[in-house]
């Protein structure tokens, strides 16, 4: 089966337990279950990982990127700092969608810049947990169009 890579960055393991006003009440398991259902309906399997460590995320992109059709990532705080994640996606060349629970442009200025923005085929943000499902739908649609 064709697979997609889902990556969750630092602190997203805490979803649903803290700061519900900013990040909502859905847990990471809730989000992953919804993504797995949507992906299965479109004929894709998922490889899902969360890490609090930048290097581990780079390792995962290198290991899985060449084997999957596409990737969806919420890089969390690494969005605003990580040239390494950007370089890993550029090196592997897998189509990637960037998602955020919050609208980073409505928040502090240091969150306005994303090192992944111009590497990603698209960004979805500001819709809470729904950002992930919308991003996955966009990725799957992109892959269908690319396949002709
Ligand atoms: O809005 C998003 O999805 C972010 O990627 C979330 C990151 C933040 O640094 C980005 O600027 C925007 C933070 C993730 C922290 O996740 C938590 C979840 C629950 C409780 C505390 C933190």
Written description of the protein model:
The chain has helices spanning 20-23, 28-41, 54-64, 83-92, 130-146; strands at 3-8, 45-50, 70-74, 96-100, 122-125. The chain is α/β, with parallel strands linked by helices and 148 residues long. It has a single domain (2-147), classed as Rossmann fold (3-Layer(aba) Sandwich), CATH 3.40.50. Helix 2 runs parallel beside helix 5 and helix 3 packs parallel to helix 4. The longest helix is centred in the C-terminal third of the chain and has 17 residues, at 130-146. The two termini are 19 Å apart. It binds ligand CA2. Ligand CA2 binds at residues 11-12, 14-15, 18-19, 23, 74, 76-77, 79, 100-102, 104, 111.
Going by CATH, the homologous superfamily would be Dehydroquinase, class II
In the CATH hierarchy, the architecture is 3-Layer(aba) Sandwich
Question: What is the averaged pLDDT score?
Answer: 97
Strand order of the largest sheet: 2-1-3-4-5
| Order of helix and strand elements from N to C terminus | EHHEHEHEEH
What general outline do the C-alpha atoms trace?
A: globular
Distance between the termini: 19 Å
Q: What's the total count of β strands? A: 5
Poorly predicted spans: none
CATH topology: Rossmann fold
Q: What structural class should be given to the helix and strand makeup?
A: alpha/beta
How many helical elements?
5
Largest sheet: 5 strands, parallel
For this structure, what is the CATH class?
Alpha Beta
Which hetero compounds are present in the coordinates?
ligand CA2
Q: Helical proportion?
A: 25-40%
């Amino acid at each position: 089966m064709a697979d997609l890579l889902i990556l969750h960055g630092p602190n997203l393991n805490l979803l649903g337990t803290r700061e519900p006003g900013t990040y909502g009440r859905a847990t990471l398991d809730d989000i992953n279950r919804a993504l797995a259902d949507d992906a299965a309906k479109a004929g894709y399997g998922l490889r899902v990982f969360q890490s609090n460590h930048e290097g581990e995320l780079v390792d995962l992109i290198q290991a899985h990127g060449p084997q999957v059709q596409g990737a969806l990532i919420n890089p969390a705080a690494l969005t605003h700092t990580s040239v390494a994640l950007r370089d890993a996606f550029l090196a592997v060349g897998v189509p990637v969608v960037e998602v955020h629970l919050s609208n980073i442009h409505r928040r502090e200025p240091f969150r306005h810049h994303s090192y992944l923005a111009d590497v990603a085929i698209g960004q979805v943000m500001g819709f809470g947990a729904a950002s992930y499902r919308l991003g996955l739908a966009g990725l799957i649609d992109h892959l269908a169009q690319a396949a002709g």
